[in-house]
Structure prediction request, 627 residues.
Amino acid sequence: MSGALFAIWRHPQSRVGLITLCFILLVALIGPWFVCSPEAYVGAPHEPPSALRWFGTTGQGQDVLAQTIVGAGPTLLVGFTVGLLVTFIGGALGISAGLIGGRFDASMTLLINVSLVIPGLPLAILLAAYLPPGPISLTAVLTLTGWAWTARVIRSQALSLSRRDFIASARVAGEPTWRIVLFELTPHLASLLLSSMIGSTIYAIGAQVGLEFLGLGDVSAVTWGTNLYWASNDQALLTRAWWTFVPTGLGVALVGFSLAMINFGLDEVSNPRLGVERRWRTALMSRGVEPDTLTPRVKR
Amino acid sequence: MRYALRRLGLYVIAALLSLVINFLLPRLSPGDPASTMFARFRGKLSPEAMGALKESLGFTEGGLWTQFKQYVYHLSQGDFGLSVAYFPQPVTEVIATGFGWTLWLAGLSVLISFTVGTGLGVLLAWRRGGRLDRTLPPLLALIGAFPYFWLAMLALWVFGFTLGWFPLRHAYGDDLQPEWSWLFISDMIRHAALPALSVVLATMGGWMLSMRNTMISVLGEDYITLAHAKGLSPRRVMLRYAARNALLPNITSFGMALGFVVSGSLLTEIVFSYPGQGYLLVQAVRAQDYPLMQGLFVMITLAVLSANWIVDLIYLTLDPRTRSGSR
Prediction:
């Protein structure tokens, strides 16, 4: 685990991602204390950005900067909660399927594949429409539609690990199954679990903003998704009020991009060849050699 | 053949599961949406018509299993009930108005995004570490981080409202009638351009990266070195030897990605008021039109599953190893 964190820090792109993410989290945590109430009517509808209102006002005359900053918290909370839940459920199901094998594995694989081929967003829309609107419903819906990817990745890795000698010797030595899972398997899966958690968080934030944009969240709360819902409801495009939807979209993208950057570093942990290759390339470049197809490459 | 049948079995199970979800949701979810739904029809429908509607959604006497059989029977007859929002049109008629548009928009975007993305992936792997390889993946990762529909809003604002290059909404001009003429078809393409572009931009990165990665591992194989040593032209090695083999795993993920693209085009349709399934779905959600919502979900799922099946059949003809069933 600490190895994974170190690898993120060592990788230049990942470090940028980590710093950006921490900055966003900081703004989401303490930012709301520094801005006016996002629900207060502070000016005329659709005022363009000015020195007083940096991001202008919404179609209701509310401060866009305040809405963007206050909206970050609930959005990220749902996003990271779903990321954790998906990793926990998908990881537990994937590991047990890979380890137990046999009929259990066959039925798990079937369930995973079936969940993957049913289109996610229409299902999420249908579920969200039937459940009472709010963050808990959104979390449930997104977890239900998102667990299968993680389960699939973890299952195949756990399956290949469980055939290795060290698992077999642990079994022969009489280690109980829970010990094998926690102390033998999980450390080998840590970076994969972490990177699929990041992937599911990116998915959860995007899908949540999409569902709320459709009006399937609690439209009276201030979140990134409802900001976009109101922007589109107040005819932001027709009135050319670009400032009502651009900041929120940039916020979503910044979070997604910083998470994706962190994942680049994690990829090198689960696939060390990538790191060796990258350093080999940097070494070549520093000597003024542009690598092409005939340059010797790092052997597997 | 065994492979094809196994995949078909998977899709049949997936279709059945989505029917079960559809059937159970109104019965299990809090707030009793079923009675709300029927209350909205009261006064609009005669008692007999009401009875028929209840029956087509499976709300009949008897246990859950009898009700489910009833529901599936009516679905198989093409009876999805009546729409609330578009009363008194049956759900099937409403869905039919938008089906072709989604097929056209999603099909167009998926084809362009797959072709361009895969092509770029081949190039990036071939010139690994080159200028294009260093700039394009981060750029597309950045674009991919934006929500689909937000990109669509931005594109609509820049190219539609500000520059005025493209039409702002709908699938064809209000002054035109659908017909097989050059005028209409060119108008249709102009209307689809922006929505398709936003989906392509958002999904292309995934194709590109996965193609690049498989291509890189294929390039490490001995037969590539042999092809180089034989003195074949680099172009031939790249396209006929490496790209052809790297393409196969990419095609298997095609089916999975189809769901994403359909989801993306659903959201994009809403931004452009494009009269497809996504637009109808949102109308249904806003009007709490549960029969229409359910019908759309069934239709979209069935369409995605059939597309998956077609992709599997294509894969079967491309990869001889799957034919023997010994994979």
